[in-house]
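Subject: design request, 377 residues
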């Protein structure tokens, strides 16, 4: 038995998902939808499946068991909620929404209907992040004292000029934080949790765009731990660094390298029991075994299919998508206001802020509307 997927939005990443479904044993492509008729027809004809331009029509099809939403960000909530309320499991592309209020609606709809809801955070499937997650969830680090994320990437002005909706408040609702950084922020919140307060700086440094291409934030956590986040599209070569430091260990992931140090007596425990002025906790670097596993977008699609068919736990549940949007909104709002904001973010305040940003958003002079699957990042 296979789960029959319908995909809404096949001009960019959706076309990649359609291709991934061609070789999947747990699922197959059943139908596609795109607001651009030529795109819908082209992809539908390529794979020999029905096509349409109205997502309601796709969701309501009897031969569609589950829905993959791969439209621009602002459209994710309405499509997702419509499908959930009709009993169709959904995977939404990242981020699940532009605002925390909309993310709340999606999560509440999933809980109310009991319909499975997931988010396309495919980097969670990679061996290095599966290993990191196991280390944290097994308690090997103990109580966390510090978190740190540096996600520095590069995007050209040509990339931002490729479509009128890119890097605008009205088209995306943000910049690097809402488009390029969600995967890194997902892993960061998955492993380190959500802070209780965010003090941020945001700026547009190297691009002719109206949203941020650089963001930095200091974080305060409920237990008193501190953290730091830096995200940008202004650097090359890029950097992808995550560190978590706790009472009993430190985890460090730099690119594709993972390191774990364990401190059996604990940092504070060693401090409290030390008799020498220059005493240092005894630590030891431990080997980290990476699991052999399926990875990528296809594995998130397959995992949802196995969840539907056999009850397998979701690797990337939709409620975790809410946590990422919480971080994104918190950093953007703090950066714009120039002061700290509490987490959970004030939903009403953020909605008012975004409405003002969208009202001032300027139409881009973009003759191109290039819709391509990202094969680089």
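Subject: RE: design request

Done. Sequence follows.
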């Amino acid at each position: 038995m296979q789960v029959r997927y319908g995909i809404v939005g096949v001009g960019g990443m959706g076309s990649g998902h359609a291709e991934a479904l061609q070789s999947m044993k747990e699922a197959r492509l059943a139908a596609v939808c795109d607001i651009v008729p030529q795109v819908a027809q082209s992809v539908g004809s390529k794979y020999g499946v029905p096509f349409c331009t109205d997502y309601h029509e796709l969701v309501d099809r009897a031969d569609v068991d589950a829905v993959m939403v791969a439209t621009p960000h602002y459209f994710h909530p309405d499509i997702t909620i419509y499908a959930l309320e009709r009993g169709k499991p959904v995977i939404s592309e990242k981020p699940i929404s532009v605002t925390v209020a909309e993310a709340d609606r999606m999560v509440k709809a999933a809980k109310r209907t009991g319909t499975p809801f997931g988010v396309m955070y495919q980097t969670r499937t990679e061996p290095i992040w599966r290993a990191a997650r196991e280390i944290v969830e097994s308690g090997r680090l103990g109580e966390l004292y510090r978190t740190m994320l540096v996600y520095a990437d590069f995007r050209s002005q040509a990339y931002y000029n490729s479509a009128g909706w890119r890097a605008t408040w009205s088209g995306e609702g943000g910049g690097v934080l809402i488009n390029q950084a969600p995967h890194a922020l997902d892993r960061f919140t998955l492993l380190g949790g959500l802070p209780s307060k965010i003090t941020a700086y945001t700026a547009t440094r190297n691009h002719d765009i109206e949203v941020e291409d650089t963001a930095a934030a200091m974080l305060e956590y409920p237990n008193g731990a501190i953290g730091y986040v830096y995200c940008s599209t202004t650097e090359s070569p890029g950097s992808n660094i995550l560190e978590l430091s706790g009472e009993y260990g430190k985890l460090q992931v730099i690119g594709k390298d993972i390191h774990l140090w364990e401190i059996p007596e604990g940092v504070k425990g060693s401090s409290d029991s030390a008799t020498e002025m220059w005493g240092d906790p005894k630590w030891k670097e431990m080997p980290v075994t990476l699991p052999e596993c399926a990875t990528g977008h296809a594995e998130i699609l397959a995992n949802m299919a196995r969840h539907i068919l056999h009850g397998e736990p979701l690797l990337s549940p939709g409620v975790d998508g809410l946590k990422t949007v919480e971080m994104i909104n918190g950093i953007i709002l703090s950066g714009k206001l120039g002061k700290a904001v509490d987490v959970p973010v004030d939903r009403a305040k953020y909605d008012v802020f975004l409405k003002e940003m969208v009202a001032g958003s300027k139409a881009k002079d973009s003759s191109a509307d290039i819709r391509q699957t990202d094969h680089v990042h």
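The chain has two domains: 3-121+295-316, 124-292+324-359.
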